[in-house]
Structure formats: structure tokens, C-alpha cells
């Protein structure tokens, strides 16, 4: 059974940092592109960042670039998202996802975690 489990969410003040981690079981992440998406209330799920299977290439949304860093540890079967300089508009449920191709659209991803809440207070 494939499971992706996110952790590390919480409440933080604007300007603060959080590190999200996604741990996989039943799936070798080393074969997949991994991505983070987020969904705020009333909004569609949107792309945040991705990292290809080897970790050699990453790609970020405009809102994440320069503030967030995606990384992976294939030996530990995990992927992380370091989020710095957080803003209230970053408040959302953050999801990790695994897919075969490095695309920014959610329907390209086959496996999803249950999400972790990130709340940034002003």
C-alpha cells in the first residue's frame, strides 16, 4: 500500500520559517518526480515546487521562488520543503505528490499525501 505522509505544518508568525517533510512507504521515491502543492480555502490546489528523481533539477512557482527550497533524500525516501519568510498568503494545506513527469499540473501526479496545515499569522 502506497502512503505519502506529510509532517511539519503548524502555526507561525509572518516572517518565520517551517520545514515540511513527506515520507513515503510502499513507494520508492527515487523513481519519481516529487512536488508540493497547496490549497487555501475556496481556492484550487496550486503548484508550489518540484524536484526531479535525482534531485538535480528543481522548479518553483513565482510565489515560492527565492523563499522556499525543495530537497529530497532518496536514501531516506523523503522529500522536504523549507519555507522561509512566510507570509499570511502562504496559509494553506500543503500536499506532497509523486509522479513520473516533471509537470506543474496536479493531474500529472499519481500519488498524494493527506496534507498538512500551514497557518501564517500577521
Concise structural overview:
The chain is mostly beta strands.
Notes on the structure:
With 122 residues, the chain is mainly beta. The protein is 0% helix and 52% strand. The chain contains no helices and eleven strands. The protein has strands at 3-7, 10-13, 18-25, 33-39, 46-51, 58-60, 68-73, 78-83, 92-99, 109-112, 116-121. The strands form two sheets. Strands 2, 4, 5, 6, 9, 10 and 11 form a seven-stranded mixed β-sheet that branches. It has a four-stranded antiparallel β-sheet with strand order 1-3-8-7, with no helix packed on it. Strand 7 and strand 8 (78-83) form a beta hairpin. The radius of gyration is 13 Å and the shape is globular. The mean pLDDT is 96.
Count helical runs. 0
Q: Which percent band covers the strand fraction?
A: over 45%
Radius of gyration over alpha carbons?
13 Å
Shape: globular
Helix share bin: under 10%
Instruction: Spell the H/E element sequence.
Output: EEEEEEEEEEE
Q: Please count the beta strands (DSSP E, at least 2 residues each).
A: 11
The average pLDDT score comes to 96
Report the end-to-end length measured between terminal Cα atoms.
Answer: 40 Å
The helix-and-strand class reads: mainly beta
Poorly predicted runs of 5 or more residues: none
| Largest pleated sheet | 7 strands, mixed
